[in-house]
Write a structure and sequence with these properties.
globular
């Protein structure tokens, strides 16, 4: 089958997709986007997390055919997505009262997102998002295998909750496993990103 969908603001077409093929396989092997990692293939580790119509999902569990006509944001497009979301009054710009709700970006809002001329498919050449820079500054990256999924999940958390408690952060990241860090630096990174986001609001 042929699957047409939007990835990081670009219309994409995947041909000869077989019925059992996962979104993760299509992203990595057909579209050349290796940021989402292939680890457990059972939805247990979170390394393959992407946003599907604004909602974080394990791309290994999503059949490629299910994304027909839908919008996907991978870690490669996260910085530009976060920037455009902030410019349109989402995420950190929801207000200081945490009035972002819990649904994230709507399908219509995601469809209005468009790449800028300097944007590349790999995410190179764009300024890092708040959460990406916080992971670097807090030393939250070691081997890096889990990092893409953690970034996508943490970005969604900060979009809907600009002042998360430690419990909120732990709950949001509970589906993302890391074998290197012991999680403390990851928690520090999300706290740092939330604090920086609060300064901008």
């Amino acid at each position: 089958m042929r699957v047409n969908f939007t990835v990081n603001g670009r219309q994409q077409e995947a041909d000869d997709v077989w019925e059992g093929e996962s979104l993760l396989y299509v992203l990595r092997e057909r579209l050349g986007l290796p940021g989402s990692k292939n680890a457990c293939e059972q939805g247990e580790c979170g390394s393959c997390t992407v946003r599907l119509d604004g909602v974080p999902v394990c791309s290994c569990l999503v059949a490629a055919g299910q994304v027909e006509g839908r919008d996907v944001v991978t870690v490669e497009g996260l910085a530009d997505f976060a920037k455009q979301r902030a410019e349109h009054g989402h995420g950190g710009a929801c207000g200081t009262g945490g009035g972002c709700g819990t649904k994230g970006v709507s399908t219509d809002e995601a469809k209005r997102w468009a790449p800028k001329p300097g944007d590349s498919q790999t995410g190179e050449g764009v300024e890092l998002s708040n959460i990406q820079q916080a992971f670097i500054d807090a030393g939250a990256v070691q081997c890096g295998f889990c990092t893409p999924g953690l970034l996508v999940q943490a970005d969604e958390l900060l979009e809907r909750n600009n002042d998360p408690s430690d419990q909120d952060i732990r709950e949001a990241l509970s589906g993302n496993l890391c074998r290197c860090t012991g999680y403390e630096k990851i928690l520090d990174a999300v706290r740092l990103a939330a604090a920086r986001q609060g300064e901008v609001v």
